[in-house]
User: Fold these one by one.
Assistant:
Number 1:
Amino acid sequence: MSKVKVGINGYGTIGKRVATAVCAQDDMEVVGVTKTRPNYEAKVAMDKGLDVYVPDSSVKAFADAGMPAAGTLRDLYGEADIIVDCTPGNVGAQYREEYADAGVKAIFQGGEDHSLTGISFNSTANYRESWGVQFSRVVSCNTTGIIRTLYPIDRRFRVQKAFVTLVRRAADPGDSKGGPINGLEPSVDLPTHHGPDVQSIMPWMDVSTMAIKASTTLMHVHTVAAQLEREVSTEDVLEVMKASPRVRLVRNGSGIKSTAEIMELSRDLGRSRGDMYEIVVWEDGVRAVGNMLYYYQAVHQESDVIPENVDCIRSMCKLEEDARESVRKTNKAMGIPN
Ligand SMILES: NC(=O)c1ccc[n+]([C@@H]2O[C@H](COP(=O)([O-])OP(=O)(O)OC[C@H]3O[C@@H](n4cnc5c(N)ncnc54)[C@H](OP(=O)(O)O)[C@@H]3O)[C@@H](O)[C@H]2O)c1
């Protein structure tokens, strides 16, 4: 069977990771990535053997820098079955029409609105909704994090209402422009957009959210309080979490007290770029009291959505009908425990 040809528009935090993950699969391949600037990231991409395509307006800059492009963005549309749009938030929307005109499928990221595609994606909760469609959207890192744990808990115990506080990283580690560098910045537009974003995939879920931006680059941390339909035990909840795809339990008692040790763990695991694709839940921080459930989870914003992008390609390109099988394949190729 021939491999699905994937083009990646935007080769930043998410785009470069999607490229690595797609290259690791046996049923898809990267036919090109795009950059607007001929900087060090473009050079590394070329050195890795990736074909770098550029917008028309960047052709001269790349030629002047002695880094001739493989072609223009439009050339890439002609090479690809599907584009994974990893341009900055709200930029992807500007490309939707181009993708439509070129007749190429496209996946957008969480920085775009759900209304851009009308379909949003999570591997476990709604894989089949993107089956064969032209456009879909992988929800943001935080929304993916909330759905990864809340969906299996809802399936088993029925969540009546959930409340999540997100402590958000201020910038990605490779970003020297973001902030705050010393302060905690509450989002005052309440409740925050994350609840409605979860509902783009789980419309029945009564979930509301608040968020605080914190002076850290490593990960986000969520505190989750969920009211369940019935009384449950902490052990029952842990059993569900242990069986949930791409959820990793760690113990504060084993020395993993913060996001710093989680990042050290992913480096020790030898993960590409030190990434932690799983949502990390502190096992000894899970507590059920009556029908209330409380837990903490950490989200590696740079990488948790990457396996979902691979599964979304499989669903949109009709490569694998069974969600669990796609998740299994992606996990195996990326070194995520099944
Ligand atoms: N970073 C995260 O934590 C995270 C997590 C989940 C989802 N997301 C979402 O993923 C998307 C990408 O975010 P990111 O963090 O990867 O962004 P990023 O690191 O800023 O990378 C953006 C890339 O897009 C390119 N680009 C900029 N303007 C462009 C344009 N007009 N046309 C084509 N390419 C353009 C940039 O290329 P040049 O450098 O050459 O200009 C860069 O390679 C956003 O929707 C974001 O909300 C981000």
Number 2:
Amino acid sequence: MHNVTLIKGDGIGPSIMEEAVKVIDATGVQINWEEAEAGLGAYEKYGTPIPDETVESFTRNRVAFKGPLTTLSGGGFRSINVVLRQKFNLYANVRPARIWPGVKTRFEDVDIVVVRENTQGLYCGLEHYLTPEKDVAESLAVVTREASEKIIRYAFEYAVDNNRKKVTVCHKANILKFTQGLFLDVAREIAPRYPAIEFDEKIIDAACMHMVMNPAQFDVVVTTNLFGDILSDLTAGLVGGLGLIPGANIGADAALFEAVHGSAPDITGKNLANPTAVIMVGAMMLKHLGEDAASERVERAVKKVIFEGTFVTPDLNPNSRAGTTEMGQAIRDAMV
Ligand SMILES: NC(=O)c1ccc[n+]([C@@H]2O[C@H](COP(=O)([O-])OP(=O)(O)OC[C@H]3O[C@@H](n4cnc5c(N)ncnc54)[C@H](O)[C@@H]3O)[C@@H](O)[C@H]2O)c1
């Protein structure tokens, strides 16, 4: 029996997480779901976006399965996603994007894993106004050698373990010579220790252009927090949209599994949200729990339903009359 903290989240979260939990349960793997709350819903109910019980549950279980959380732009509380990643030192955010057979995309051969440094950079929360009139503001980016070594080593180890051929570091060290320069220096130091893995470096703006023009040249990409956030949505666009991309936040002794996408207020309550991303998040979590066969079963079922293209959400097939619940059911039916 595995104990997992379950946070269904805001917006489309509860509806897609419900489908994902049913799919995971249908594998027969015994999971004791410990439900906890976080995000805007928790804030409105309890006056805090992250109740102590939620932190205690994750501290106890060390594994969490989380839906998207709403963070208002501008004012309001600090992102709970960022808070949890920092609090539990979930330093590696792993976001695989690949083309599923049956999904219409502009390319045929995209298979990119973005490995994002998850605890530092411009997401440190070191932000303030410099004047009482609030007409000047500053944000500080912090990059340490220790955290850079950890994430770059993680990217190379991931490449070795998953039979990948190349690691590309994306940076802006030409302009941000200290923070980004340190990250690049560390990558250049570590790369030669992995002679079987090709190493490449790209300045982030050019990397975006190359990724859109010729994504096949990218394999594993390692980068700092903000660039990783942006690049992973870009890779989602290359393979058919945000509804398809899972993610894992990995630390030394805790892991939190969540999709790349957010709470999608524009489609909340309409049975339109694609549950694939969170179901594949579930597959990543099963693998982390040592349940490889169950993880592969889930992946095979998702692949079949997407390939057939009938019971899929409209983001994948505009003519489809199926929604979140029908797609979830079809994936369960496809599990053999
Ligand atoms: N990890 C997280 O919890 C997380 C990640 C990103 C954004 N957010 C939050 O989510 C909220 C909304 O952000 P946003 O609109 O910029 O990004 P979003 O990812 O919620 O939505 C962007 C677009 O993608 C579509 N989309 C997203 N998920 C989909 C799915 N499963 N199926 C089909 N279409 C899907 C949406 O309908 C929307 O058009 C914000 O409050 C933001 O802070 C949370």
